[in-house]
Amino acid sequence: MDPFLTLLHSFSLSLSDAELTSMKFLCRDKIGKRKLESVKSGAELFNILIEQQQITRDKVSFLESMLENIKREDLVARLKQFVEEGEVTSPDDQPDPREKRLLKAAIGVICDNVARNWKTLMRELDFPEVKLERVMAANPFNLREQFFQSLQEWQKSKGKDAKATDLIKALRRCNMNLVADKVEQKLLLLDTETR
Question: Which end of the chain is less congested by CB atoms within 10 angstroms, N or C?
Answer without folding.
Answer: C
